[in-house]
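Let's practice the habit of predicting before peeking. Look at the sequence and jot down your guess about where helices and strands might fall. Then scroll down.
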Amino acid sequence: MTVDDVRSDGAGISAGSWFDREFDGAPLMAILRRMGVERSLRVAGSAWDLGLDAVEVTLQQPEDLEALAAVVDAGRARGKRVGAGTIISVDQVGRAVEAGAAYLVSPGWDADVVRAAGEVGIPILPGVATPGEVQAAVAAGLDWVKAFPATWLGPGWFRHVRGPFPDVRFVATGGFDAGNVEEYLDAGVRVAAVGSALEDPAQLERLAGVLERRR
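Done guessing? Here is the structure:
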């Protein structure tokens, strides 16, 4: 997939509108972290079978690009778009786009990375953990952000931050499973991300229940 393909996929809509559409009816997403190609494909398949349309493959080691490209191809066959996570440098933006990522996710706030994503026309969820970082994202024209590490911040953080920033939508990551994810959705998190829980059959059954209750 080229930069032009990514641009045409989201042509005429803002990044916020793109995420509004992509995460509509999707309270959970899957994060595949350093799993390699075969495991990434297996876990992505489990996520899609469960009903988790949103899948993110993190880029932390060279082989992760191969895993991203493989999951992108598998997702395309199912009509699913795949994101690239742990984007912490401008160089990664281009590599993720060339591997076929439809959107980017960063663990922290970096204006240069956000700007680079905008220049190639790919939506991005920058990471935030303070009101100041949320405000910086709003000033940059963003209304979707990633809160990390969410379970360290706690559900109360989301309730408080939504006061001054009622229009910001939070994708929360870091430490979620079927046992705690609904507490954060109740606190105002728009999408919560799960990872290793997707390889636990008992967790999969409970996550299916979460999806059923939240849709």
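How did you do? Residues 107 and 127 are 4 Å apart (CA to CA).
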